[in-house]
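Hello, quick one for you while I still have it in my head. A protein chain has come my way and I'm curious about its shape. Can you walk me through what the tokens say about the fold? No rush at all, and the record is pasted right below.
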Amino acid sequence: MLQYLPNSLTVTRLLLALPLGALILRHEFGWALLVGCIAGVTDALDGFCARRLGVLSRLGAALDPIADKVLITVVFLCFAQLALIPWYLAVVVIARDVIIVCGALCYHWLIGPFEFAATRLSKINMFVQIGFCALLLVAQVVPSIPPQFLVGGTALVLFTAVASGLDYVLSWTLKATQYRKDNDQRYGR
């Protein structure tokens, strides 16, 4: 039964996106913060449990980033809908992920299979986005948080989203170019 625990935690995090979004849209920010914290705990525990129990799986490896992206997408869209953030910020965050997924699919179809792994910059980006979402929720509950923190957080989210998106585009372009070059040399083209 324990072998299903990590994936169950990931699925729980995925399912928390809907109530989290609903709470934000209903201006129930205290409850949204609680649900967000629960989602954060499941994120920390799923990988830890998978490693500790020795039950790493391809399903879990695929579901984990999907759950993260669904949560981030829902939260940024809800924040933008309430005008807590500018729409362009939500668009940049979501467009980055769409570009990465489309690029990975194109690489798979045109070049071949690949082993996808999050880059260090991508992990920093996710940390910044989660921290910004938490800060924004806390700012709705505790209005004494200086607005400069939110402005700085917005700039940091924009910077890391663009930088990590460009990092993926450049690294996958280089991999594709190297693959083509190696195949041309191998087959004498």
Observations:
- The mean pLDDT is 89.
- The chain is about 80% helix and 0% strand.
